[in-house]
Each structure stands twice: as structure tokens, then as C-alpha cells.
Amino acid sequence: MIDASHSLALIAVMALVTALLRFLPFLLFPEGKHAPRVITYLSGVLPSAVIGMLVVYCLKDVQPLAAPHGLPELIAVAAVAWSYVWKRNTLLSVLGGTVVYMLLVQVVF
Amino acid sequence: MAKNTVKTAFLATIPVMTGYLVMGMALGLLMADKGYGWWGSALMGLTIYAGSMEFVAVNLLSGGATLISTAIMTLLVQARHLFYGVSLLEKYRGMGHIKPYLIFGLTDETYALACSGAPEGCNKRKYYFLITLFDQLYWIAGGTIGGLLGAAVRFDTRGLDFAMTALFVVIFTEQALSTRDHAPAIIGVSAARVCLLIFGTDNFLIPSMLLITALLLGLGALRKRKGAAQ
User: Can you give the pTM of this predicted structure?
Assistant: First the structure.
């Protein structure tokens, strides 16, 4: 059962927080003002660290000790990374990896 | 001679179009699977407009999350946008009345396109506006089609949410390939892994974020000292 008004409120919260984060740098450092060096430094290194964190977040529910021991995830992640190194095509890797994973969890394991 | 900016912008966004249509459809299908109509993903694409966050949103919405936890989760997942903004301060200078829309529409992919800059001979303002607009239209179209499809056809969507994992793995791989400095990525993965072990699946994002920021600042200070010593 969906609570439509609660869903709408959640969407509004997510939209507001997202917009706030996107606008904040431009509000804090308006045109003609330079950002402090620590911010410039973090802007360079944080994106790859955060993406690494998000990969861990996506895989947080994997149980290596219980069957199937995270094997579908391991295989599918390897397929995505390998195909991307090979072809450098985001769409191919995302689509292919998802199909591989769906086959693994629905048919194989 | 001035190039046709509309055509140039369209050609530049074709890779994003294919990606967004497919990812948007995956999102629409997931939303339909949780009982939302096509309007659910269309509305999110219109207002939130952030691919990865909207996949997280499916879980928050269907799990009936509270407003506070949703706000915190959004803050964490979207914090990287702070840093996108910082790195585009110069490029988006003097964009006038379209600037708010450029900032609103700053997704990972549009950011990547904007970072590469406007091609020679293009009207810069028009180019940045169009890539942002085209990308958002692809995303909304994908979400709507997926939502309609999901309502019309019933099929086993188990494993479909792996699309989000795959997207992050691709971005992660791309970053690893395009830089020689792998320390930030390693810090991100290991800090998150350690915090996951300590704090558990529901509470590890905030400590991870703090630990990552502290470690990155430490790394910066260490490298500065090393650089000064040499």
C-alpha cells in the first residue's frame, strides 16, 4: 500500500536537499570570489573516494558467509569492470552487467 | 563560421541519452514494481533529477522512511555535488539567468560533459543550457517509458536493482583508469568497508563520510609536508 502524501513529502525532501547541495558552492563562493584551497583540494579527491564508498553501499547486504557467498555480485561486478576496461562503454557495461546479475540470481543460484 | 550549437550539443549528449534512457527505464520499472505509477519516476526526474539518488529513493519510498532519515541519506549520497559545484565555479561564471537551471541540472553525467567545456565556435551559454536540458529530458523520458512498461507487463525484476551497482562500478573504474592517484579511491572503499563492519548496514554512511574526509585531509597534509621536505 502506498501512502501518496508521505511519498510526495519524501520526494520534496530529496529534491530540496539535492538542490541545496548543488547550489551551496555557488552561493558560498559567488562570482569574483575564490574558494579556499582546502575546498579546491577536497573537490579533487573526494569524488573518487565517495564513489568507492557508494560501491560498498550498494554491496552492503551481501552475505559472504551464507550461500551463495556473494558469488553473483562478485561475478557481475567483475563483468562490469572488465567489460568497461575493454570497451569503455558505460551503457554496454551497465546493461550487460545487470543482465548477467539477473540471470545469476533468477536462474543459476 | 559559428557552428550549429543545437547540433553540437545534441551530438555531445548521445552517450548520455542511451545511458539515461536505459537507466531511467530501469528506474521506472523498479518504481512500477513497488506499486508506483509512471508519474512516480517522471516526478522524481523533474524535481530531484539525480540518477543514483533516485535509485536509493525507491528503497526509501517503498520502505516508508522518515523525513529525517531521508534528508540525511540524501545529504550523504549527494554530498559529492558540493565538490562538483566547486570545480565548476569558474566555468559557469557569467552564465546569467540560465545559471540556476545549469546548477539544478548538474548530474554526474552533465557534470562530466560540462567539465570537458564547450567546443570551439559554440555559443557557450546556449551549449551548457542545451546539454543540461537534453540530459534531463532523456532521463524523464526513460523513467516514464519504464513506468508505463512496468505497469503493462509483469515480469521478474529480481536483480534489476543491480543497475545502480553497475553504474557506480563503471564510474569507479573510469576514475581509476583516468588517474594515477589511486589513494582517494582506496581510502573511500576501505573506510566504508571498515565502518560497515563496525556500525552495520543501517548506520555506516555518516561515519564513513567523516572518516573519508579526515583521511583525505590527513593525506593532503602528509603530501604537502613530503613535498616541502624534498
Answer: 0.72
